Amino acid sequence: MTMLFGLLGCKAKAKKDFVFDEFKSQIEKYGMRIDSFDETELIYISQGETTLKVSLDNVRKNYERDKDTSHISDLVQTLISNSLELPSKWTDVQNDIYISLFPNYYEFADSLHSKVTDEFSKVYIHSGQGKLTWITPDDLKKWNITEADLDKQANQNADKLLAVTPISFDTIENRKVGLIEVEHTSLKPALLFAPSMKEKVKKDFGFPFYAVIPVRDFCYIFSEKDFNFFSARIGQIVIDEYKKSGYPITTEILKFTDKEVKAVGKYPVK
Q1: Chain segment 57-99, per-residue pLDDT in tens
Q2: Could you give the CA distance from residue 20 to residue 208 in angstroms, rounded to a whole number?
Q3: 243-261, pLDDT tens digit by residue?
Q4: What's the rounded Cα separation, in Å, for the pair 76 and 23?
Q5: How buried is 251 (Cβ within 10 angstroms: 0-12 exposed, 13-18 middle, 19+ buried)?
Q6: What are phi and psi of 231, to 5 degrees?
Q7: Reduced to 3 DSSP states, what percent helix, strand and coil does the chain have, rounded to the nearest 5?
């Protein structure tokens, strides 16, 4: 099995490359090593029967923006978590089951996921100790549950998290735009899909509502009556967030209704 981490393209440059050198140093501390690079400049790392294809492009973007080495450590921890088996008892994991969002160019392999739009999918994950571990059919067999059970639990956990998560808002010309203030930012846009979100936003934004989620840790919410106002003003913000982040999702404008989540427009990325 091969799993892809990050966007296309990674190069071990002859000149000094701090991000690459730090990444290589960290994985070697955990007994992993780089096997090779392919013609697309992806890094190959063998891990048992699994081959990891890794790109450092996203990490470089985030490091150049923040000068924070935790972006490198986060990727290393993701690789490590992929090699670890989740606990065998459902009761030990069920309270940490969620969905997260990833662009469709990811290689999902056998991980449980479902397409939301042409741009991104929701992936079932276990969130624990700062790591997101993708869930597979083998995990369901181990836990003796169905995919419907998994989805139900993810929804219940999302509702619990949403209940203690404030939605703040800015006011622009007497119109509200909402922001989700969740501690675990990797789950921020996923809370938009919580069943109780309808009731959470109804007072301030009505229902249906619209949202943009250009990256994993950023989203805007706005009302149907303010669609024309905000859709004409937030495009550059959405594009800038999407282009500068290592965790892009989509530049689509999404409409959330009782029946579906659908893209009603898309800001072009040049």
Answers
A1: 778 877 887 787 777 877 776 676 655 578 889 999 999 999 9
A2: 45
A3: 887 788 999 999 999 999 9
A4: 7
A5: buried
A6: -60, -25
A7: 35, 30, 35
DSSP secondary structure letters along 3-48: EEESSS-----SS--HHHHHHHHHHHHTT--EEEE-TT--EEEEET
CA dist 165 and 184 (Å) reads 10
Asked whether the predicted pLDDT for residue 103 surpasses 90, the reply is no
Residues 99 and 124: beta-carbon distance below 8 Å: yes
Written as six digits, the tokens of 73 are 């450590």
> Structure pTM?
0.73
Closest CA to 55 of 71, 69, 68: 71
Q: Does residue 103 have a cis peptide bond before it, meaning omega lies within 30 degrees of 0?
A: no
